[in-house]
């Protein structure tokens, strides 16, 4: 489906995040009044649960964009927000607390999407609708799933890596390392599937890892293990499922003495990753229109709070039911695409990206 492009600066988003409560990661949800009406007013309560803060997108983009859209659509609604810090037990406490406080709608990006069916069932028993945000919850039926076409993300990463290896003439001359995301995140399994759809039979996979918590530190350790096992000169590429883990892999390779990096993939278009692409340390990232994801979820949450249930254009089977879904399109971004996507859409300003040491690289990439 067609996606609205992101047109908001990082500075504005960070300001919006800073205006919220600072106790975002406590087990008790923090409350944000969407408009000017008091939190105890007649408006509905929407509870938003995000899984972790190691990936910068959640606090810098998802939360403020979601809250701003709820405020626009429902000035007397208020948002209960919690971040679980990658702790599934903590997230359970947060969801249960929100249900006790009378949340009208749950928007849940689960730490462990395969284990939260009992939480969803508790919400159902209280007649509180649930939206699975970004990660597909399995084992139970619920109202909506909003995310990206995750298998397609993995296919785009795999294709970009394969194209880069073929261009360098190294696809058949060495081995690649695959660094996947958290095994408790079903999106990670989709990215992994997509990457294998493209790469299997075309490259030699030397080492492959599922990385707990999507941790950059653990990805660095995994990459160090791979370099020791395969040999520094035998690694021709790295399939990293996101930008944070790519940073860990690059740190390991620098410690091992690499002066030129082989092609390395990523996802999320983190600022540091965009800068690494410009400097040549990282080959590509996946640009996700987080604004579209957050705003669509906010629209559905407000509709559900009002007793409405809009039709969804897609379906996602979670092993138990076909969940009405909105599956948004990812965009692969290499250095030649930064200006026409990330910068053009206002995801980052040129001034955010183009530090003094990147002035020449930005000019060459057409960023101004």
Automatic annotation (TrEMBL):
Domain Periplasmic binding protein, chain residue ranges per copy: 49-309
PROSITE patterns xrefs: PROKAR_LIPOPROTEIN
Keyword Signal assigned: yes
Superkingdom field: Bacteria
A family per Pfam: Peripla_BP_4
InterPro entries: Bact_Solute-Bind_Prot2, Peripla_BP_I, SBP_2_dom
Protein name as annotated: Sugar ABC transporter substrate-binding protein
Taxonomic source organism: Microtetraspora glauca
């Amino acid at each position: 489906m067609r996606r609205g492009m992101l047109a908001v600066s990082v500075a504005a988003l960070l300001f919006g995040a800073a205006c919220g409560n600072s106790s975002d990661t406590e087990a008790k949800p923090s409350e944000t009044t969407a408009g000017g009406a008091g939190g105890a007013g007649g408006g509905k309560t929407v509870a938003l649960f995000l899984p972790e803060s190691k990936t910068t997108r959640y606090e810098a983009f998802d939360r403020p964009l979601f809250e701003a859209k709820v405020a626009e659509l429902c000035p007397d609604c208020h948002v209960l927000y919690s971040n679980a810090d990658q702790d599934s037990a903590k997230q359970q406490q947060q969801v249960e607390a929100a249900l006790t406080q009378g949340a009208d709608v749950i928007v849940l990006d689960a730490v462990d999407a395969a284990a939260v069916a009992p939480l969803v069932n508790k919400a159902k028993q209280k007649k509180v609708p649930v939206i699975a945000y970004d990660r597909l919850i399995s084992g139970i039926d619920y109202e909506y799933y909003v995310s990206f076409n995750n298998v397609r993300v993995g296919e785009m990463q795999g294709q970009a890596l394969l194209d880069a290896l073929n261009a360098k003439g190294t696809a058949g001359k060495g081995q690649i390392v695959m660094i996947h995301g958290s095994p408790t995140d079903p999106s990670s399994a989709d990215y992994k599937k997509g990457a294998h759809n493209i790469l299997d039979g075309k490259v030699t996979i030397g080492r492959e890892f599922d990385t707990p918590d999507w941790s950059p530190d653990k990805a660095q350790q995994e990459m160090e293990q791979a370099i020791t096992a395969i040999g520094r000169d035998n690694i021709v590429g790295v399939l990293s499922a996101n930008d944070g883990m790519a940073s860990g892999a690059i740190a390991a390779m620098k410690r091992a003495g690499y002066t030129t990096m082989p092609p390395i993939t990523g996802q999320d278009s983190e600022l540091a990753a965009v800068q690494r692409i410009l400097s040549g340390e990282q080959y590509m990232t996946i640009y996700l229109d987080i604004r579209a994801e957050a705003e669509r979820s906010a629209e559905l949450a407000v509709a559900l709070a009002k007793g409405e249930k809009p039709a969804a254009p897609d379906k996602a089977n979670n092993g138990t039911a076909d969940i009405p879904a909105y599956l948004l399109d990812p965009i692969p971004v290499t250095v030649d695409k930064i200006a026409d996507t990330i910068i053009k859409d206002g995801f980052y300003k040129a001034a955010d990206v183009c530090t003094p040491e990147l002035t020449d690289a930005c000019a060459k990439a057409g960023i101004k």
